Backbone:
């Protein structure tokens, strides 16, 4: 096991800069996700760590050792790919044991280790099949087995579940999390699925255009996003922003969005005014409470999803989503009142740069 560190790593393909100075410190045994939209440089960053691409500049360290000039094999990392990359003509047992055979380990010793790994991944009954005779989930487990058996210092996962259907993806997610809890091997996992990142990671690096925009625990990136970009990328449904300004209403400060006035403490109002008055507000649906008092709005849409219902509220000049528990029904067009449960759950961003305005 080992820590992984990237210091100002850049990578260009011809004139196209893909990684523009990636800094990242992954602790020994930590599970870190690189999260971001398509094209932000996640896979390239992972390939740089694996040694499948050479960095244009910057340092890559594994276990405190600079590895920029080492081959992928010398870096002692195991990568699990999106397309599994199994050998089609080999059986499951041969696929899993292949790298050990390459290292010259005796046939019987390999057989025993393959059996143990296969057992832990519930692949025992299919050891003698070839990949084409397996389901997608089983193929991905074989790819995991092939990585595990090497006992590497670091696991690298490149969107390993993206070819699986939704149900299987959630099952495999749990398996990978349990595997990490059991083996404790430093892991770096690439995904564009925010829910996958939140549920798996010790920390998430949210990437934007070749840089890490925020690196924090799932709770930090969800509750204290540094920017509109992070706030919108994490959480489902995506956060909406309401442009507004601080005003005084009956002598008390409020944040006005069209016809709606969100009450503010004097301290918050002062901070916002110092920051330039015009800013954007975001509130997570679970903090938007429906009730008999508060701001008056109209139900535009109700979307039940099982454990909760997302209710889109609209008023003159604004719109916000509330989350109510269970399978609720709301008639479109009906009148409701809502409020945000606590002032600290009002997230403010400057309208210009999109940075979070610190209230602490
Ligand atoms: P995705 O989720 O779509 O894989 P990503 O965040 O992993 O996205 P990368 O695969 O790292 O992004 O690609 C980032 C950018 O670099 C893309 O615009 C891609 O076209 C470009 N790119 C990647 N590899 C190469 C290459 N070998 N040559 C030229 N351009 C490349």
Residues:
């Amino acid at each position: 096991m080992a820590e992984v560190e990237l210091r100002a790593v850049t990578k260009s393909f011809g004139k196209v800069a893909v990684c523009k100075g990636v800094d990242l410190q992954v602790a020994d045994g930590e599970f870190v996700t690189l999260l971001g939209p398509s094209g932000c440089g996640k896979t390239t960053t992972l390939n740089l760590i694996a040694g499948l691409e050479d960095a244009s500049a910057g340092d890559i360290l594994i276990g405190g050792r600079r590895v920029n000039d080492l081959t992928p094999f010398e870096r002692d990392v195991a990568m699990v790919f999106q397309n599994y990359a199994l050998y089609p003509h080999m059986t499951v047992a041969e696929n899993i044991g292949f790298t050990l055979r390459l290292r010259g380990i005796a046939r019987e010793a390999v057989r025993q280790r393959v059996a143990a790994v296969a057992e832990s991944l519930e692949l025992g009954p299919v050891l003698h099949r070839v990949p084409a005779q397996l389901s997608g989930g089983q193929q991905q487990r074989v790819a995991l087995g092939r990585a595990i058996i090497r006992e590497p210092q670091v696991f690298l996962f490149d969107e390993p579940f993206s070819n699986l259907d939704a149900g299987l993806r959630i099952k495999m997610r749990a398996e990978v999390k349990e595997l990490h809890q059991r083996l404790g091997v430093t892991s770096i996992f690439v995904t564009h699925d925010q829910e996958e990142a939140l549920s798996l990671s010790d920390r998430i690096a949210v990437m934007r255009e070749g840089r890490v925009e925020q690196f924090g625990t799932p709770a930090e990136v969800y509750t204290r996003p540094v920017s509109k970009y992070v706030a919108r990328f994490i959480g489902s449904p995506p956060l909406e922003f309401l442009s507004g300004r601080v005003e005084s209403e009956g002598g008390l400060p409020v944040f006005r969005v069209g016809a709606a006035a969100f009450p503010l403490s004097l301290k918050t109002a002062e901070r916002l005014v110092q920051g330039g008055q015009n800013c954007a507000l975001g509130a997570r649906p679970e903090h938007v409470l429906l009730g008999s008092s508060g701001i008056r709005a109209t139900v535009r849409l109700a979307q039940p999803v099982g454990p909760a219902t997302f209710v889109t509220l609209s008023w003159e000049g604004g719109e916000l989503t509330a989350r109510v528990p269970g399978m609720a029904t709301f008639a479109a067009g009906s009148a409701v009142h809502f409020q945000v449960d606590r002032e600290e759950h009002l997230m403010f961003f400057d309208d210009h740069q999109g940075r979070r305005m610190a209230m602490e």
Q: What stands out?
A: The CA atoms of residues 86 and 343 lie 52 Å apart. Residues 13, 16, 18, 36, 38-44, 192 surround adenosine-5'-triphosphate (CB under 6 Å). The mean pLDDT is 93.
